[in-house]
């Protein structure tokens, strides 16, 4: 079953790229960015699910929004735009600060979900203040809604070139430590007894995940990355219980959903690709449930 899903996802992605190249050229680069973003975020999804970090992963929607709004301020002061490398770098910095703020709050004695909720509460307050500040800095040149929905149709080869190094760097952690991290989630005490530093891996996971979501904010906006950090892993767990299959299966499901979202968007233009992607992921979840 996993091999069939992976083959179907690859064929669907190739078909979507060919369709975009020949019949909808404006959407070729946005689709390429969406597919690559889906691959990277979905690779983290089983890790978040297995380590019971889904609350933190889902909270990335709030973290990315606050970080993107905060990053827009120094970016504006430097005379750059949200499509510039400076914006991405500032976003990475602020996302990391917010995610590690959760760990710092957890050390006060709170559970992970409570610590995440505390930090999220302060993020919402900061986001409101930042929205007013950005309106003054950018006036009419930046629509804050774009930070939520993404600038999908405006993505070009230059934007993808800016994304690629960050996406490639973000893939290092799941490629090198993904399977070990999954096994550590099954039996953390045994993992530590054989020399695995689970706390250090948690820190590396947060750092790399921050890089992954920051690299995709211009394409997917601030909310959809959180969906791709949770749903592919949750769905993959329903299709297979083998740990070694979780990451490739989650990636395949996300790629298939992104490719299907492209066809849906070309047929129904008012349904934004990120929204269509979420609808496809829901269909994949329900398809297994009622099979």
UniProtKB/TrEMBL annotation:
It is found in: Membrane. Its main location: membrane. Keywords: Membrane, Transmembrane, Transmembrane helix. The keyword Transmembrane helix applies. The keyword Hydrolase does not apply. SUPFAM superfamilies: ABC transporter involved in vitamin B12 uptake, BtuC. It is a multi-pass membrane protein. The chain crosses the membrane at residues 28-49, 61-79, 85-102, 114-134, 211-235, 247-264, 270-287. Signal peptide: none annotated. GO terms for biological process: transmembrane transport. One of its GO terms (cellular component) is ATP-binding cassette (ABC) transporter complex. Belongs to the ABC-3 integral membrane protein family. This is ABC-3 protein.
């Amino acid at each position: 079953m996993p091999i069939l899903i992976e083959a179907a996802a690859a064929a669907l992605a190739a078909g979507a790229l060919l369709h975009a190249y020949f019949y909808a050229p404006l959407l070729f680069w946005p689709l390429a960015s969406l597919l690559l973003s889906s691959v990277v975020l979905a690779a983290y999804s089983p890790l978040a699910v297995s380590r019971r970090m889904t609350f933190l992963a889902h909270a990335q929607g709030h973290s990315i929004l606050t970080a993107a709004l905060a990053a827009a301020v120094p970016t504006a002061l430097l005379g750059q735009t949200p499509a510039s490398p400076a914006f991405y770098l500032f976003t990475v910095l602020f996302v990391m600060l917010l995610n590690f703020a959760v760990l710092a709050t957890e050390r006060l004695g709170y559970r992970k979900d409570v610590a995440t909720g505390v930090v999220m509460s302060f993020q919402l307050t900061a986001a409101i203040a930042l929205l007013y500040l950005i309106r003054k800095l950018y006036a009419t040149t930046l629509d804050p809604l774009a930070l939520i929905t993404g600038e999908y149709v405006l993505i070009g080869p230059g934007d993808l070139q800016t994304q690629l190094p960050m996406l490639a760097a973000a893939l290092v952690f799941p490629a090198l430590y993904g399977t070990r991290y999954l096994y550590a989630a099954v039996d953390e005490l045994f993992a530590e007894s054989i020399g695995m530093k689970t706390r250090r891996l948690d820190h590396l996971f947060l750092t790399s995940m921050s890089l992954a979501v920051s690299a995709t904010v211009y394409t997917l906006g601030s909310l959809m990355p959180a969906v791709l950090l949770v749903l592919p892993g949750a769905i993959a767990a329903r299709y297979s219980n083998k740990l070694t299959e979780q990451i490739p299966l989650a990636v395949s499901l996300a790629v298939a959903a992104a490719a299907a979202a492209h066809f849906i968007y070309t047929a129904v233009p008012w349904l934004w690709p990120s929204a269509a992607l979420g609808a496809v992921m829901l269909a994949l979840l329900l398809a297994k449930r009622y099979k």
